[in-house]
Amino acid sequence: MNKLSYALGMNIGRQFSEMGVENFSATDFAQAVADVLEGKTPALTPAEAQQQLELFIKEQEAREAKKGEAARKVGEDFLAENAKREGVKVTESGLQYMVLEAGLGKHPSATDNVKCHYEGRLIDGTVFDSSYRRGEPATFPLNGVISGWTEGLQLMGEGAKFRFFIPYNLAYGSRGAGASIPPYAALIFDVELIQVL
C-alpha cells in the first residue's frame, strides 16, 4: 500500500462524508483520478463535468436551505415558548434574558472591554463553550462579540449573572460557527459580568 495515496484518499473521503455526498461511486472517482493522472481522455467532457458539479452544488444548497429552515423553526418555537416563562424578559430586538443575580456595579457601554465568566449551550443543552470549564474568565471588547452579547451585557451591572436566550439573528446567523454551532441556532448563555475594564 502507498501510504500517501491512502492518506489523500482518507482526507478526500472525509470531506465528501462531511459534505453529505450521495450517490457516490468510489470506483468511478478512482477511475477519473487515474485517467487524469495518466493523461487519458476522460469519460466526460469538461462541459459535462462542469454541469455535474453545478448540479451537485445546487442540490447541496437546497439540502442546506431545508435543514436551515428546520433549525430556524425549532429555535423560533423554543423562544416563543420561553418568552412565556416567569422571569423571562424580552427586548425590542428579540433578545430574551433572566436575571439570575442582580449586579450593583458599573454597567458597560458597547465600546467597553469586559471580563466575564460564561457558559454557552445549544437549546438541546449541549455545551459548546465555557470559561468556567477552562477555569479562567474571558476578557473581550463588547463591540467584538455577537450582537446578543453586546446588547445583553449593557443591561448588566458588575457582579450580575444573567441567562440570555439569543435568537439566531443576534448570534451566528445563517452560517453558524465552526462545527459546534450550527446555522440558524438559537443559543443560551449564562453570563457573569465580573468587571468593566
From TrEMBL:
GO terms for biological process: protein folding. SUPFAM superfamilies: FKBP-like (SSF54534). The keyword GTP-binding does not apply. Keywords: Isomerase, Rotamase, Signal. Its EC number is 5.2.1.8. It comes from Pseudoprevotella muciniphila. NCBIfam families: PRK11570.1. It comes from the Bacteria. Coiled coil: none annotated. This is Peptidyl-prolyl cis-trans isomerase. It catalyses: [protein]-peptidylproline (omega=180) = [protein]-peptidylproline (omega=0). Belongs to the FKBP-type PPIase family. One of its GO terms (molecular function) is peptidyl-prolyl cis-trans isomerase activity. InterPro entries: PPIase_dom_sf, PPIase_FKBP_dom, PPIase_FKBP_N, PPIase_FKBP_N_sf. The keyword Isomerase applies.
